Structure formats: structure tokens, C-alpha cells
Amino acid sequence: MTRIGLLSDTHGYLDDPVLNFFSGCDEIWHAGDLGDLGIMDRLAENRIFRGVHGNIDGWNIVRELPLFQEFTIEEVSVLITHIGFQSGRFTQAVAERLNSFKPKVFVCGHSHILKVKYDESRQMLQINPGAAGLQGIHQVRTAVRFNVNGERISDLEVLELPRKANP
After folding, report:
1. Contact in structure between 130 and 8 (CB atoms under 8 Å)
2. DSSP class of 166
3. How many domains does the chain have?
4. pTM surpassing 0.90?
5. Per-residue pLDDT tens digits for 70-117
6. Alpha helices, DSSP H, located in 5-86
7. Residue 123's CATH number
8. Kind and range of the H or E element at 38?
């Protein structure tokens, strides 16, 4: 069993409640708009980090993180990118990758809106972890964690935090 922590849209901000939520996670996945490479370093301490760059990330992050991550964890294929949708539909690049790679889990960020939905037509779980940072339209900061055990995804939990940073 592999315990996954998932977040997006930190925009250069990461606090202890999010890090504490991820304690015990074997891997951390970040779906873009990291904002600061130091966040990647903090999330990667003593575990595997997988991430993609987002539309606000500078060249230092773009050089370190790809636009797409495609991989298999245990028996679950995963596709991660930052911008997955445009005008309510998959972007062309995402649709092409979904059609060729056929992931069981598709993760994207960008909207700052938490979404967990099973797509029957593609037989895949879509997850947008919302936004863990302070910048953006969201009213609540969110992150997600779950287990992967063979081909099974279970025990999905959501962390909700106030938009304002705690003093």
C-alpha cells in the first residue's frame, strides 16, 4: 500500500497544517503552480515527490518539473498536469494523452476548486485538489490524501483550512 498526498496551487506558500496532513505519506504529488522550488524541497523530504509546472511558475521551476507526468503506482496508471480543462472540456493536449495513456487517475489543478469525480466514460477518477496556497479565488484551502493498494484507491480524505494564514 502506498499513501499519497496531493495538492496544487501553493503559489509559493506552504504551512505546517498541510505538511502535518501529509505526515505518513509515501509520495507527494503537486499539480502545478508551485511558486517556489523550496516548497518542492520541503514536500520531498524523506519521500518521493512528483510534480508538474503550472502557468505561474518561473523558468527555474519549468526546468525542474514537466508539463505532464505519466506513471504507474502499484497497479494504477496516473496522469498529472496543471491545466486539464478549458471551457468545460479537456484541453486538446490532455484529451490526446488520456486517449493514448488511458490513466485510472487523472489529476489537474489550476481552477482552485476541489473536485473528486469518477468519469464513467473513461473509467478514471478525476481529482483536482483545489488550492493549498493563499492566492486565488478560493475561499477554503484544500489538499487531499488517499491510499493506493494494488489497483484499488481508498480512504480519500480532504483537508480544509481557512483561506487566511494562521498567525
Report:
1. yes
2. P
3. 1
4. yes
5. 999 999 999 999 999 988 899 999 999 999 999 999 999 999 999 999
6. 16-21, 37-43, 59-64
7. 3.60.21.10
8. helix 37-43
